[in-house]
Amino acid sequence: MIGYATLVQALRKGYNVRAAVRTQAGFDKIITLLPVKSYVDQLECFIVPDITIPGAYDEAVKGVEYVIHIAAPLAQTYFTDFEKEVIQPSVMGTIGMLESASKERGIKRIVITGSIASVAEGKSILTGPGDIIYTGMADLF
């Protein structure tokens, strides 16, 4: 996944990383993986179980210089309402991160990224007809 690959690269470059994850179990799994094991002393965990709650990232961004925001629900075949279960949480999580970061004076740069998996239904990626193309937040509301 993009988030994991970015984490590994940041650690390899020598950055101390505060990773916001949804569960402690998720973080525990990450630190056992070979590419991360030798960098555990550079890695701190912050649990954010619901990225859509206002202020969810307030504590996570305290004292940081850089923010890389990659969090978004991935489209799953069992979702019944793609807009509600994927698109809206992705937007709300990104806005929440930006609002939290705007409260911190020391942040030098914010990078926001994602993948096609967070904005397009899997079946639509493969089939094409009927796709909804999201070009900006105005399309979402």
Keywords:
single chain; 141 residues; alpha/beta; Rossmann fold; two-stranded parallel ribbon; 5 helices; 4 strands; globular; disordered C terminus
Please write out the topology.
Elements lengths: L1 H11 L4 E5 L2 H7 L3 H4 L5 E5 L18 E4 L12 H21 L6 E4 L9 H6 L14
Parallel strand pairs: 1-2, 3-4
Helix content estimate: 25-40%
Q: CATH H-level name... which superfamily?
A: NAD(P)-binding Rossmann-like Domain
Biggest sheet architecture: 2 strands, parallel
Query: What structural class do helix, strand and pairing data support?
Result: alpha/beta
Q: Could you please say which CATH topology applies here?
A: Rossmann fold
For the largest sheet, list the strands in their spatial order: 1-2
- CATH class equals Alpha Beta
The CATH architecture designation is 3-Layer(aba) Sandwich
Mind explaining what this structure looks like?
- With 141 residues, the chain is an alpha/beta fold.
- The chain has one domain: Rossmann fold (3-Layer(aba) Sandwich).
- Helix content is 35%, strand content 13%.
- It is built from five helices and four strands.
- The strands form two sheets. The chain has a two-stranded parallel ribbon. Strands 3-4 form a two-stranded parallel sheet.
- Helix 4 links the parallel strand 3 and strand 4.
- The C terminus is likely disordered.
Question: What can be said about this structure in brief?
Answer:
The chain is α/β, with parallel strands linked by helices.
